[in-house]
Amino acid sequence: MTCLFQTHPWTKAFPEEFRRDVIAVARRDEAPLRQIAKDFGISEGCLHR
Known about the structure:
Blueprint: H1 16-28, H2 33-40, H3 44-47
C-alpha cells in the first residue's frame, strides 16, 4: 500500500487532484474508511492523516 502524502523518500506521493478526490469521498461518510482505502489502492492509515 502507498500513502497519500510523501513522508519518506521511498514512498510515492499522489497528485493533488487524487488526494482531493479521496478526501472528498471519505468525508461523505458513505463507506468505511477501510473500503475507501482499498478502492483507491492506499493504506487506511493514510486516510487518518
